[in-house]
Amino acid sequence: MIFEWIVQNSPALLLAVPMLGAFAVPLMGRIGEKARDGWVLLVSIATLIIAGILTNEVLTSGTVVYTFGAANPALSVPADSGGIPFRIIFAVDAMSVFMAISASVVGFAVFLYSIVSSARMSGKDSFFALILLMQVGILGMVCTGDLFNFFVFLEINSLAGAALVASRVDKGVAVEAGLKYAVLSTLGGLLVLFAVGLLYGQYDALNIAAIADVMQFGMPEKVALVLFVAALAMKSGAVPMHFWTPDAYSMAPSAVTAFLVIASQASLYGLFRIVFTLYNVTLDYAAMGWIIIILGVLSMFIGVTMAIPQKDIKRLMSYHAVSQTGYMLLGVGVGLAVLGDENMMRAFGMTAMEGGIFHIINHAMYKGLLFLTAGAIFYQAGTRNLNKLGGLGHSMKWTMLFFIIGALAIAGIPPFNGFASKLLIYESVFIFSPVLSVIAMVVSILTLASFVKVFHSVFMGPRLPEYENVTEVPKAMLYAMGILAFFVILFGVFPQQVIDILISPAAMALADQGSYISAVLGGN
Amino acid sequence: MAFVETMSTGFGGWSPLFWILAFAVSAITGWLIWRRGESSCKTGTEQEKPYLCGNKEPEKGDVHVRAGNMYWGFTEAMKGYYEFLIPLHTGILTDYILWFLGVIAVMLVLAAGVF
Description:
The complex is a heterodimer. Chain A is mainly α. Chain A contains 20 helices and 2 strands. Chain A has a domain at 284-493. Chain A has a two-stranded antiparallel ribbon with strand order 1-2. Chain B has helices at residues 16-35, 60-63, 72-77, 79-85, 93-113, and strands at residues 7-8, 13-14. Chain B has a two-stranded antiparallel ribbon. The chains are: A mainly alpha, B mainly alpha.
């Protein structure tokens, strides 16, 4: 009975649990540190379980539509509404749950890690509350079927993220990085709001499916599209709007950085959702596809080449995050460019999309892992400067092992998960344009070179006197890294199962606009 | 081992099974070679110290190749590229906003003229 109720209300619970959890964190903090830490872990586990239940529900029964305030949550269009779904509606399809499960797994690892890694920090009540609120923002962005609601969750995500980036208030640069993130996110959010306003003015609706159903591609819609694409591409860290990324990612505590990667991916999801679900058939597929491809190629190449000369381990990894976002844009962009051609879509377009989407979850796992290892290094050695580090492999063997797993995965070395998604991208993109595929491979080689440098600088060499007393990080931090490393290996060894269960349904959900619209509007 | 499926790329496939087998064979081979090593070697003694033709061993920090010395050739060869690219990353917020607005302007022009 209770389980059925949870299943039926899982879209609402997915947000309600971390939101209520966030508001209760300061109260738990009053009881004691252990109570608060236990509460945070409990909330993140509950969120993960609900995400799992919702994922199972969507993958077995199809898109779940949840209408807030309706007597029957599945009733999206009330009889007296004139055919407009005016209530707040969550439309959770395979793409949504794919993102939700990714955010929940990384979220759990981040909380487990933070409980120990933040031990020396003050203000932990607000720190944990903000991470939970950021999770609410991310999960809301990927579940909502309403444009204004999307904006609200984008803002929650951005504001919580900016506060977290600046959480090391003792360091002026962290506050500066937080300010940059806040200003750019606010500007991006305002443009998204303006775009939503333009569409609302045109169609008297905010529901994605309702607007998509009647979308005409006039000038207001074109302006709205540009604002959506630019703002969400900037939020996802695409070149040439990536400048905030190394600043914010490097100054945030490492656990937060691992979650900021997910926050950026939620914006990437938003970009794909707008292009594929909101506009889709109205678009010139080739033109829009090439815009996304160009953003992707620029991100891949400039990201990796900027990473190579970096001397701060987290700035280096941040540029790699930009570079890896490029792969996702490339794969999905190629899918979009050929979306109108059934033969090309069947021949390679869908595979390219699957590769791009698969890379999202793979990147979430291995980049999250890499940022956590960077945090472990900083936690014990007290510096992120690669010129000062060295010889830590003698004393931090587990961290070194996790770093190797993450580094090989990001470089696309088999049998880790990065290889599986990159192979799908290489082969499918090669048919579309061999040059693009070659660029993607060259970027992978440069990525490997860059991480070889980090590996050598941090872990190799003799045990240095200044790190004589360095020991391995506490077990909870190792367990958190172990969870992500487990998924990196699992997805690499069983890629086809992951594709069959999670990736293909997500790619289909994105490409098939009609199914999304009928799932939401057919609920009356 | 049917549960380790071959991943289909649409043009071919890739089986993680072969990589796992290759990894296992390499690891076992490595372990066998290591096992045949000199068993009389004692850790924590003079035997562990590097022999440098009788010269004094340099400080540990001096023998470690630091990150700044790595890939010098790459960055030197790409000097022109980096001289253009790195200064673009000014760290100034107003520059970031200008880039963002510039991209929006280009996209608006494309939207008006192309699609």
